[in-house]
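dumping this here so i dont lose it again. seq + smiles for 2-oxoglutaric acid
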Amino acid sequence: MITKQLLVNGYELHKNVFTPEEVKKASRILSSIFDKQPKFKGDRTNSPGIFEGTRQDPFNSYPELQFIITSEKLISALKTSLGNDIYLLPQMAAHKNGFPDWHRDTTRQEKEGHTFHYLSHYNVVNCGLYFQPNNLALGGGLDVIPESHVGPDPFITKSWYNKLPIIRRLYNQSLYKRLSKNGRTIFNDSSDFLIFDQRILHRATQPTERSRDKFSIFFMCSPDYQSARQYTDYFFSRPESVGLDQIQYRREFIEALEHAGLKLMI
Ligand SMILES: O=C(O)CCC(=O)C(=O)O
């Protein structure tokens, strides 16, 4: 049973899922991981742009982070939002100083011709762990357009869009202005856990000052086998995912997920 909040608004914030000690521990581990050179395929470090660094598959690649995904309170929050049957998708990443602007997580697949995310049964959520409170000066969390997970994607444009650069510029200006005006900042605390529909329009809360590092971890889940299969097959078909379907998951990781009641889609 999906909660009304997630179904109607497209997002749900669970408060106080982690203790202050767990938040400190996670931040310390993430900081030290990002201080070292990346070891795994798809990782980036010190890249200028919207993500300073990313580490794929954090709970499996770094056993010291496994306690996060198997935390009883996190699993209980997931089950409250999605029901007891939960598939964990293999797309998971830790970010350092990630500040992407407005987007939908399904725009790319739609541009590539996929429309399975509009099927009535479809339900995939993105789960966000922010290890700092969100505020308007420093950022640290998410802005969303409530209820925008239903309906068409404004980033999918018709053929007129590509005719003239001025048309593109005017369309983009007006779209970003409208999104910023209607966006709602989710003021999470560092111990909270955020679940949002993969189709909701969202962006990282944009900081006006940068006096601290932002660390976050995102992973995707679904309460529906078919949705989980469709998205996972699409994810593995992307050129940059080549080889990711061969990832060796640690036995302890698989067992811990099974114990927690999460089914890993591979
Ligand atoms: O880094 C953030 O706060 C936003 C992440 C995001 O937009 C995404 O994972 O799709």
